[in-house]
Design brief:
The complex is a heterodimer of chains A (115) and B (114).
Chain A lengths: L2 E3 L4 E5 L4 E3 L2 E3 L5 E7 L5 E7 L5 E3 L5 E5 L4 E6 L8 E8 L8 E3 L3 E6 L1
Parallel strand pairs in A: 2-12
Antiparallel strand pairs in A: 1-4, 3-9, 5-6, 5-10, 7-8, 8-9, 10-11, 10-12
Chain B lengths: L4 E3 L2 E4 L5 E6 L6 E8 L3 E9 L2 E5 L6 E5 L5 E5 L8 E8 L9 E2 L3 E5 L1
Parallel strand pairs in B: 2-11
Antiparallel strand pairs in B: 1-3, 3-8, 4-5, 4-9, 5-6, 7-8, 9-10, 9-11
Classes of the chains: A mainly beta (115), B mainly beta (114).
């Protein structure tokens, strides 16, 4: 069964600073990997995804993530954080085949941005 | 293109009652997945429907059920509500049959059980 670990429950950065959110996954085959963002009281918005190919993927809002198979990681990065990036971020892994529609999420990382 | 819509957005029920939540997927998407989000357990997969058939089911008791209609709209039902069922219920729309694997989430229904 797949699983996702986000080691950091809460991260605080200053506006303009760089950001890296960590994600480690466990899955036997090549995973489908996602990062979602959730603002308070809202649903989840897809930031980016990795299915195959280039291990560095670009997403919306200036985010990028790098898939590292050897480390079972899919860390999210942004070079310069804006105050509007404050939200909760979720890493998720999906399986193909018969489990196509099921995503397994990490516990989330709350991002606070100081002015 | 309109996004995923969920109704109602907020709901307050009493223990022992039952509740039905509705989800309308993005036009053209024939798959709907449901998730429960709580502070303690995080985001957990409930079930997935494709073409009116349940394709996957998470580890939830039988009090949680769902269905999908021919227009791809989906409902989930929780019977005999318990306090622990208080949560944000999210549905996600995706296009299983076109090979896309991106799930697009609705705003959720906030259920409070008293």
């Amino acid at each position: 069964a797949q699983s996702v670990t986000q080691p950091d429950i809460h991260i605080t950065v200053s506006e303009g600073a760089s950001l890296e959110l960590r994600c480690n996954y466990s899955y036997g085959a090549t995973p489908y990997l996602f990062w979602y963002v959730q603002s308070p009281g809202q649903g989840l918005q897809l930031l980016l995804k990795y299915f195959s190919g280039d291990t560095l993927v670009q997403g919306i809002k200036g985010f990028e993530a790098e898939f590292k198979r050897s480390q079972s990681s899919f860390n999210l990065r942004k070079p310069s954080v804006h105050w509007s990036d404050a939200a909760e971020y979720f890493c998720a892994v999906g399986a193909g085949g018969t489990s196509y529609g099921k995503l397994t999420f990490g516990q989330g990382t709350i991002l606070t941005v100081h002015p | 293109k309109a996004g995923v819509t969920q109704t109602p957005r907020y709901l307050i029920k009493t223990r022992g009652q039952q509740v039905t939540l509705s989800c309308s997927p993005i036009s053209g998407h024939r798959s709907v997945s449901w998730y429960q989000q709580t502070p303690g357990q995080g985001l957990q997969f409930l079930f997935e429907y494709f073409s009116e058939t349940q394709r996957n089911k998470g580890n939830f008791p039988g009090r949680f059920s769902g269905r999908q209609f021919s227009n791809s709209r989906s409902e989930m039902n929780v019977s005999t509500l318990e306090l622990g069922d208080s949560a944000l219920y999210l549905c996600a729309s995706h296009s299983r049959d076109r090979g896309f694997y991106e799930q697009y989430f609705g705003p959720g229904t906030r259920l409070t059980v008293t």
